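Minutes, project check-in

Agenda point 3 was the complex the collaborators sent over. CS summarized: two entities, 232 residues total, and the question is how they sit relative to each other. Sequences were read into the notes so everyone works from the same version.
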Amino acid sequence: MKQPRKYRNSPPAPPAGPLPPLEVIELFPRREARAPVVRVLTPDPDAARQDLEQAAAAAESLLGREELVRLLQAMISVRSTPPGDSA
Amino acid sequence: MARRLTVQHFLACENVRVISPVRPWNWYNLGGVGHRHTVVLSTELPCVIPVMNLYTRFYHGRGSVDFELRIWGLNGPNGRELIEVYGPQTVFFRPNEPTRDFVFLLNRIAIPYPGLYAVRLASLPGDRGRGVALATEYFEVVNVP
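CS then shared the predicted structure for the full assembly.
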């Protein structure tokens, strides 16, 4: 079987197996002389709320308020229906 | 011969979010990717960009490497000018991990004037050789009414 061509600057393949979680390295201006903070990125409920608000505002500007409300109501209705009860 | 450390992606963005639920092979969202930061005209300059995320993908990292990030103003009244320095910060690369992603989160970038700015990521001289410039990202600060 023909092998894929290797380009000179092609990136290495990602490692096999689970990838490590994304680490955030928080840095401060050198003049503040504060130690960096290294942390693993974890889900943030406040961020999720903020994302939802932004998405709703964007959808409202594209679709209009009535359509946005209709879509949200449809989503809530689907999520509140138990599995197997859709008929 | 060992491949040298390179940076393939170096991208400024407003936020980075992990997609819940967390699990191996997790996905991430980069939000607010763009070259332009707007400053409201009523804001007095110098102003501060509270937070900037720089999503960075390294290739061929080995051992530990010290990094530094510098913010340059490119078209200020005195031409090119160093605005802010972040780091040095040591990053550890695990064995058998040819690609590795990090987010550098820069706090409180002081912006003295509207214009074009560059963020330069460089490795510092150490046991594994001389320091080298690895990547540059640009952003523009503009006044808006």
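Noted in discussion: The mean pLDDT of chain B is 86.
Follow-up: revisit at the next meeting once the mutant set is ready.
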